[in-house]
């Protein structure tokens, strides 16, 4: 126990200021942040797959270039986040092993298939939209390296959301078949996107403590509500509908009411039984094995340069 360290930590949190890697922090804070930041990094890396599947099938050279840039951005987000997580004291290869061995979670959403080109639109609009709603408040997270990484990530995510919106807008204003394809993608992605915000507050073990530590600024349900309120108007502008018969403006609350989500399906997806969990993990393991030579070459080069610098 470090009384002076604890007092300093408490003061920084109460002043809504920032904890930096060299500051003393409670073991539980370090552990919970390592968990959240590394899960977030894993999500970015696994999240490359559903869209990477469509790069070769994008309908034009321009669309291909945009999609490729977007998938690369996600790799970049994963890298900043692994770097932020490492400053908490766990090495990146250990974090990576946790993912490869199935000991770490990644976002439920990436276990759903991307069936048509319109899914690239729905993923951009809804999935990246939900990511922004969840992550903008994280720019103010009390842990410095995490908050700073989020600033750049959020800027890139807003570009991603706009490109998704634009794909859907074009399809929605295209032929009847294209419009149908756009609607079908939204129908499939809507509920899983709402579940990205995590379980209901009554069932969220980490929320309260994370909010006391100024890591989370809003609860899962608060952010989900904010997102629903935002996308109802956007769906109207797109000329598409959201697949929820209970969606309705509530004058008294000043928010849209929405229907119950299927939390059993959510648990089952997180437990590894979603439609694409096996495929996503197999692909990640193969990619990791295939990249072994790059890691070996980089390590050999680093050792050689270090030896030359020491000589
Ligand atoms: N998918 C998978 N697991 C989830 C999800 C989800 N959508 N939501 C919650 N969980 C997990 C939590 O990680 C936690 O698991 P653990 O105890 O094994 O670590 C458990 O369910 C309980 O949830 P909470 O107590 O609500 O957890 P927490 O307070 O960490 O809140 C949240 C979850 C909102 C996802 C939070 O961690 C967060 O904001 N993370 C950063 C954002 C992020 O990771 N986004 C990834 C998708 S966006 C993208 O990659 C483009």
3D structure, described in words:
The chain is mainly alpha-helical and about 300 residues long. Helices cover about 65% and strands about 0% of the residues. A hairpin with a 4-residue loop joins strand 1 and strand 2. Helix 6 (about 120-135) runs parallel beside helix 8 (about 175-195) and helix 6 (about 120-135) packs antiparallel against helix 10. The mean pLDDT is about 95. The protein binds acetyl coenzyme *A. Acetyl coenzyme *A binds next to helix 2, helix 6 and helix 9. Acetyl coenzyme *A binds near residues 40, 44, 105, 131 and 135.
Structure described in brief:
The chain is mostly helical. About 65% of the residues lie in helices and about 0% in strands.
The assigned structural class equals: mainly alpha
Please report the number of helical segments. 13
Helix content: 55-70%
In whole angstroms, the N-to-C terminal distance is: 43 Å
| Spatial extent as radius of gyration | 21 Å
Shape: globular
Extract low-pLDDT stretches.
none
């Amino acid at each position: 126990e470090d009384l002076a360290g604890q007092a300093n930590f408490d003061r920084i949190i109460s002043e809504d200021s920032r904890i930096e890697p060299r500051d003393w922090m409670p073991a539980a804070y370090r552990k919970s942040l390592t968990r959240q930041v590394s899960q977030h990094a894993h999500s970015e890396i696994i999240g490359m797959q559903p869209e990477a599947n469509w790069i070769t099938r994008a309908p034009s050279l321009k669309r291909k270039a945009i999609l490729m840039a977007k998938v690369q951005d996600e790799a970049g987000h994963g890298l900043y986040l692994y770097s932020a997580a490492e400053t908490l004291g766990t090495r990146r290869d250990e974090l990576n092993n946790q993912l490869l061995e199935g000991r770490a979670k990644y976002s439920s959403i990436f276990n759903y298939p991307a069936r048509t080109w319109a899914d690239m639109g729905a993923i951009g609009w809804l999935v990246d939209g939900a990511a922004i709603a969840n992550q903008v408040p994280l720019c103010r997270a009390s842990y410095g390296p995490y908050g700073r990484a989020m600033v750049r990530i959020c800027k890139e995510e807003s570009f991603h959301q706009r490109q998704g919106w634009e794909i859907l807008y074009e399809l929605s204003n295209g032929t009847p078949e294209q419009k149908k394809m756009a609607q079908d993608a939204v129908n499939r992605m809507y509920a899983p996107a709402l579940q990205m915000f995590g379980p209901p507050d009554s069932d969220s073990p980490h929320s309260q403590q994370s909010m006391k530590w100024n890591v989370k600024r809003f609860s899962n349900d608060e952010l989900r509500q904010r997102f629903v309120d935002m996308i109802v108007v956007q769906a109207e502008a797109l000329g598409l509908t959201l697949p929820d018969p209970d969606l309705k403006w509530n004058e008294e609350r000043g928010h849209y009411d929405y229907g119950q989500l299927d939390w059993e399906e959510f648990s089952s997806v997180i437990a590894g039984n979603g439609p694409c969990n096996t495929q996503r993990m197999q692909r990640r393991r193969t990619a990791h094995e295939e990249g072994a030579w790059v890691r070996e070459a980089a390590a050999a080069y680093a050792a050689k340069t270090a030896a030359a610098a020491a000589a």
